[in-house]
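Colleagues,

For the teaching module next term, I've prepared a clean inverse folding example: a structure given as tokens, and then the sequence designed for it. I'd like students to try predicting residues themselves before seeing the answer, so please don't circulate the second half yet.
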């Protein structure tokens, strides 16, 4: 039997929180390996620099702390949103789309530092373990992956805290008790699940929400905005050009103030169980509504319908962690090809949780007023042509009905006489 070669260096996706701080120490002790920490700012809304001090306190020499907000929105959220993605009809994939970027950067750091393994803090029940690891293996087939939650015996919050205290790991005061729910955040969304949210009948308390005011408490006056698109991507809000991350931040602020983007759903996890989650995606909700309005006047009918037919599969691939999958890339190429003329401006009103489209215009609009007008319109549309068009499309329906009626008549004629 061949011995497994030892692991020399591990790149850990490190937040500086209780879980990943315990994982860091556990990796040092259990694997006897050097650990490199990687902390990404993807717009979670908190200062990530304290992670440096925590890593240094645990003896880490190679510490990566990086602002990836622009890359996150430009290279991941933008292409995903071109598909108008909704997993199971509601979820805008906020957590899902952040994982491939983190996985990619971990692999790059592993190559830069000569590490032979990567590690994450995802539990053995969730989707994130799958998303991280599919990303790792797609980019580095021979990389070793360490998932502590699938290996160790620290199976409860109490055991984690006890381990932290035994190893002099600093624990924030609010971590000494049971957290009311688990939170994941980035620039696209913030999610909450578990604990007080595990009963799908229980209405979430208002304290669960942090990015949006209650729609009932939102202003009584609508907020009117415009969003400009170029080749399918938003580039300006109210006429002001913004970078990808700044644009999403602006939409988040506008949406949050107007109570937009709350979703309470029970979804099907890839690992097989159902999970109740409460999501806030204020900017994404506005963005998606505006995109559909922009496409409504710039996409050919059949191209648009084909694109809509691709969307559920695309969303499923992203949700399940297959961002680097050839199938997702193939669908992306088709989706991107549809976006060349999706350029123009959409006007919207934001009001008490609602996003209301009030106008759309485009330099290459397929909407032709002289064709659709009820007044006398374009000379090249002859209404009498509709007669033949309808007759041809009805032909197979008429044939089906004639055959069915004939079979009924045949059956009646086969019946024996009552006399």
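(Answer key — instructors only)
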């Amino acid at each position: 039997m061949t011995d497994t070669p030892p692991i020399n260096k591990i790149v850990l996706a490190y937040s500086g929180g209780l879980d990943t701080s315990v994982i860091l120490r556990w990796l040092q002790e259990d694997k006897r390996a050097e650990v490199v920490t990687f902390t990404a700012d993807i717009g979670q809304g908190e200062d990530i620099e304290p992670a440096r001090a925590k890593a240094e306190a645990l003896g880490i020499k190679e510490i990566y702390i990086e602002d990836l907000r622009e890359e996150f929105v430009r290279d991941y959220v933008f292409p995903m949103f071109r598909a108008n993605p909704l997993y199971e009809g509601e979820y805008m994939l906020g957590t899902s789309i952040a994982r491939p970027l983190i996985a990619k950067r971990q692999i790059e750091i592993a190559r830069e530092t000569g590490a032979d393994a990567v590690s994450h803090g995802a539990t053995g029940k969730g989707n994130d373990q799958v998303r991280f690891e599919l990303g790792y293996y797609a980019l580095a087939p021979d990389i070793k992956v360490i998932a502590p939650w699938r290996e160790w015996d620290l199976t409860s919050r109490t055991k984690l805290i006890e381990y932290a205290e035994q190893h002099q790991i600093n624990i924030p005061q609010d971590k000494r008790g049971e957290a009311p729910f688990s939170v994941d955040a980035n620039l696209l969304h913030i999610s909450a699940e578990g604990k007080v949210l595990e009963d799908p009948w229980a209405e979430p308390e208002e304290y669960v929400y942090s990015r949006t005011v209650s729609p009932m408490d939102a202003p009584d006056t609508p907020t009117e905005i415009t969003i400009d698109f170029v080749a399918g991507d938003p580039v300006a809000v109210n006429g002001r050009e913004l970078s990808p991350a700044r644009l999403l931040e602006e939409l988040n602020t506008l949406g949050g103030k107007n109570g937009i983007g709350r979703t309470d759903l029970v979804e099907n996890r890839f690992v097989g169980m159902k999970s109740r989650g409460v999501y806030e995606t204020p900017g994404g909700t506005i963005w998606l509504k505006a995109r559909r309005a922009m496409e409504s006047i710039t996409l050919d009918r059949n191209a648009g319908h084909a694109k809509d037919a691709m969307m559920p599969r695309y969303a499923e691939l992203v949700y399940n962690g297959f961002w680097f999958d050839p199938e997702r890339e193939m669908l992306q190429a088709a989706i991107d090809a549809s976006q060349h003329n999706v350029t123009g401006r959409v006007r919207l009103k934001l009001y008490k949780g609602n996003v209301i489209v009030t106008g759309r215009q485009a330099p290459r609009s397929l909407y032709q007023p002289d064709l659709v007008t009820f007044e006398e319109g374009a000379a090249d549309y002859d209404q009498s042509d509709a007669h033949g068009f309808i007759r041809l499309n009805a032909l197979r329906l008429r044939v089906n009905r004639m055959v069915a009626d004939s079979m009924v008549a045949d059956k009646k004629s086969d019946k024996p006489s009552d006399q």
